[in-house]
Design a protein that fits this description.
By secondary structure, the chain is mostly beta strands. The chain contains 1 helix and 10 strands; from the N terminus they run ββββββββββα.
Length: 209
């Protein structure tokens, strides 16, 4: 899943950038026995895992000039690197924490004040992309985004929700996505955004050592 889009940013002073993305697996210890946890060892960046949110053509955006911020930011063409990740499912939520090391520092596109809340609609789809508060981490630029998409298929409405939190420092990124699990005969559980924010801080601290 894509992990960067319309974002609320907070940044702080610069610092020497050193990190070890393999250490992102240290966040596994924060999940109890009620979670099913899986880690992905260091490997080349998987474009599918980091693919941006795809929206169909013909949508109307409000504000109209904010459409470019309604889709997830992707790695620039030609940028390569490695990633390691931890995925956890439990308590009705799914959390994915990814640490990236790229061949060059990735520029971060921040929306202006008028693009912090974007609505879109068209055909059988409508949705909302809004900035949310991201945790402050010294020497790191952090961002947060909340997405809600509703689609109508066969007369049935389906709603998808996703929170993304991201941190940028030099050629490194840490990304956390959180979404509710859709389970048979069980109600949808609200996303534990506090845990997602804590995961971002813990993962950044882990990889920075």
């Amino acid at each position: 899943m894509a992990c960067v889009g319309l974002l609320a940013a907070c940044s702080s002073g610069s610092a020497e950038v050193t990190a070890d993305i393999d250490r992102v697996t240290e966040v596994k210890s924060s999940f109890g026995r009620e979670f099913l946890v899986k880690d992905i060892a260091r490997t080349g960046i998987d474009p599918k895992l980091l693919a941006g949110t795809v929206l169909p053509p013909g949508l109307t955006f409000d504000p109209a000039d904010c459409s470019k911020f309604a889709v997830s930011q992707q790695l620039p063409q030609g940028v390569q690197g490695n990633m390691a990740a931890v995925a956890a499912e439990g308590r009705g939520n799914r959390f994915i924490t990814i640490a990236l090391e790229t061949s060059e520092q990735v520029p971060v596109s921040e929306p202006g004040r008028t693009c912090r809340r974007i609505g879109f609609s068209g055909g059988q789809m409508r949705g909302l992309v809004e900035s949310v508060e991201a945790p402050h981490i010294e020497g790191v630029q952090t961002m947060g985004v909340h997405r809600v998409v509703q689609t109508v298929t066969g007369g049935h409405t389906r709603t998808g929700e996703l929170y993304n939190y991201s941190a940028y420092f030099g050629p490194y990124q840490v990304l956390v996505t959180a979404n509710p699990l859709v389970q048979p005969n069980k109600p949808i559980v609200p996303v534990d955004t506090e845990r997602a924010r804590e995961l971002l801080v813990a993962a950044v601290n882990a990889v920075r050592g």
